[in-house]
Design a protein that fits this description.
The protein is of the alpha/beta class. The protein is 37% helix and 24% strand. The protein has a domain at 107-174. The chain has helices spanning 3-14, 55-63, 87-90, 108-113, 122-130, 135-144, 160-174, 190-207, 218-224, 247-254, and strands at residues 15-26, 29-40, 44-48, 70-75, 78-79, 93-96, 178-182, 210-214, 227-232, 235-241. Mean pLDDT is 87; it is low at 1-12.
């Protein structure tokens, strides 16, 4: 291998995410204008912007839940369009949604163990509904997020903050290289939101995972993330280290004048 090829290989390995001319349109509406960027392995990135700016669309494209109108998404050196939607994709990327996506009528532990479905066959998945499989792993994940004492409670009986911690524990069992979070604390009060974001960022950094999250709170994003990307009307307004994002940039980002109507 040549020196140039070796350097290229190292660069690709250091990039968790690479976007090339990525865009998404819904009919005549361009939800996300073409953009190209990279995210380094282990980096924590917050996506900011008003409602309807394209934040969720970008995360859905990154997770493979939505196909682009143009361009390509590459995760850890592999183009997402070439990955199978099951185990192969789950090993690379996992997503936490605003609604947590827990099953309310089963226990917190059962919900966490759902993170192992990509590794289990059909038989083991069915057996686990009655006799939880890999229980020690599930309990360890719940302990890591501070809710091991809630393991046997039905998810529907948990508080919002506890439910979000269970969702994070489930992602720990999935163990993807890249964690996506869509406004993960939008439904929590300020104190609990801060606790959950600190937990999510700490887990990502401790385990060397890449974290990309859309954020409602500018204050939490500036305080806890390495890098901020500002989206407005589907167009990137800034992409900078958190310390370099000035107040006037944020005022312009959220200025109601000139915002497209949210559908």
């Amino acid at each position: 291998m040549s020196l140039a090829s070796l350097e290229s290989s190292r660069t690709e390995a250091a990039q968790a995410v690479s976007l090339s001319g990525l865009s998404k349109a819904y009919g005549p509406i361009e939800a996300l204008a073409p953009l190209s960027l990279t995210v380094a392995a282990g980096e924590t990135v917050a996506i900011l912007g008003p409602s309807g700016s394209g934040k969720t669309t970008l995360l859905l494209l990154l997770s493979g839940q939505l196909g682009p109108s143009s361009g390509a998404v590459t995760l850890v050196g592999r183009e997402i369009a070439q990955l199978s939607p099951g185990k192969e994709l789950a090993q690379l990327v996992g997503m936490i949604h605003q609604q947590f996506d827990l099953v309310p009528n089963i226990s917190a532990l059962h919900n966490v163990l759902a993170g192992r479905l990509g590794e289990w066959g059909l038989f083991k998945s069915l057996v686990s509904l009655v006799w939880p499989q890999d229980r020690p792993m599930g309990m360890e994940a719940l302990a890591r997020v501070g809710v091991a004492d809630r393991a046997e409670l039905r998810a529907g009986r948990l508080s919002g903050g506890e439910q979000q911690r269970v969702a994070i524990a489930r992602l720990l069992l999935q163990d993807p290289a890249i964690v996506l979070a869509d406004e993960p604390v939008a439904s929590l009060d300020q104190a609990r939101a801060g606790e959950v974001i600190r937990l999510l960022v700490r887990i990502a950094r401790d385990s060397g995972k890449t974290l990309i999250s859309s954020m409602h709170s500018v204050e939490l994003a500036r305080a806890h993330f390495d890098r901020l990307i500002g989206l407005r009307n589907g167009i990137v307004q800034f992409d900078l280290p958190s310390s370099q994002v000035a107040d006037d940039m944020l005022l312009a980002l959220y200025d109601i004048k000139g915002l497209r109507r949210e559908d």
